[in-house]
Specification:
It is a single chain. The chain is built from one helix and 17 strands. It is mainly beta and 282 residues long.
Length: 282
């Protein structure tokens, strides 16, 4: 995983959850991919968790009066990582998130009242429901949510990984899609592999992966192979349709989010039985 910082105290890259960020302020890494990367992608709508990154997101059919949603990773849960095959829904939560403006400045705190969904099966995602509506957040902070695309991204798409925790933006391209990505006990499907410019680190877990042209969320950042090991924790391996295993040391990955909108109904309520919803079920 791009480790939550409470799990990364021994990493030479991370000083710990209470340490100062590696950069003094907002920092944009321009990638070395084939595409020009939009200068318009910023921190607006992103959040910092206690140990990870995330974003306030809306689905294509979300309304201003709906309770807002925060997107992050399943492995960033305050209760610890879900087990393989475990799916959590509608769990009480009072987790708080620090909301950022376009420049990465802390605006204030938004609060969850529910963990709507979380899993590390097939994907690595958590969705928190907030006590505030989108309209209330806009009125108080002047911040609009990020839009989650309901379309599968394409190879070579220019993307930005926006970390609210580190106040840092990584820019690169979608290099490929991975049939299965295995890491320890977990298996992720159809993962996004980045080109090498997105050298994400612990604390970037849960960052929205934004299409740099459309500014829509297409994935959520979650892991990378640190040491060149095969299929171990912090060293995911790729498994193709024929079972062939490949390791890319230093390369990082995200989980696609286009599956989520079909599972969110009226009022931003989770509906895993909705037509077209293919997210893992409890």
């Amino acid at each position: 995983m791009n480790k939550p910082l409470l799990c990364a105290l021994s990493s030479v890259l991370i000083l710990g959850a209470g340490a100062a960020p590696a950069v003094a302020g907002p920092h944009h890494d321009r990638g070395h991919g084939k595409h020009h990367h939009s200068q318009d992608v910023d921190f607006s709508g992103t959040v910092a968790l206690s140990n990870c990154s995330g974003s306030v997101v809306r689905m294509p059919d979300s309304q201003p009066t709906d309770p807002a949603l925060v997107l992050s990773n399943g492995h960033c849960l305050e209760s610890g990582m879900p087990g393989a095959g475990e799916v959590l829904t509608d769990q009480p939560s009072d987790r708080s998130f620090t909301l950022l403006d376009a420049a990465g400045k802390d605006l204030g705190t938004v609060q969850a009242d529910k963990l709507a969904y979380a899993t590390m099966t097939d994907t690595d995602v958590s969705l928190y429901q907030l006590t505030s509506t989108y309209q209330e957040i806009a009125d108080q902070y002047g911040i609009e949510p990020l839009n989650v695309s309901d379309q599968h991204p394409k190879e070579s798409t220019a993307i930005s990984v926006v970390s609210g925790y580190w106040k840092k933006i990584y820019s690169c391209d979608v290099d490929a899609f991975v049939h299965e990505l295995k890491e320890g006990d977990w298996t992720f499907k159809d993962s996004v592999r980045y080109t090498s410019a997105c050298d994400t680190i612990g604390g970037t877990s849960g960052s929205p992966v934004v299409d740099s042209a459309t500014r829509e969320v297409v994935a959520v950042n979650n892991t990378g192979n640190e040491d060149g090991e095969e299929c171990t924790m912090n060293n995911p391996c790729e498994v193709d349709e024929n079972g062939e295993v490949t390791v890319h040391q230093g390369i990082n990955y995200a989980q696609q989010t286009y599956l989520i909108p079909a599972c969110i109904g009226a009022g931003n309520k989770l509906d895993l039985e909705a037509e077209g919803c293919t997210l893992p079920k409890p």
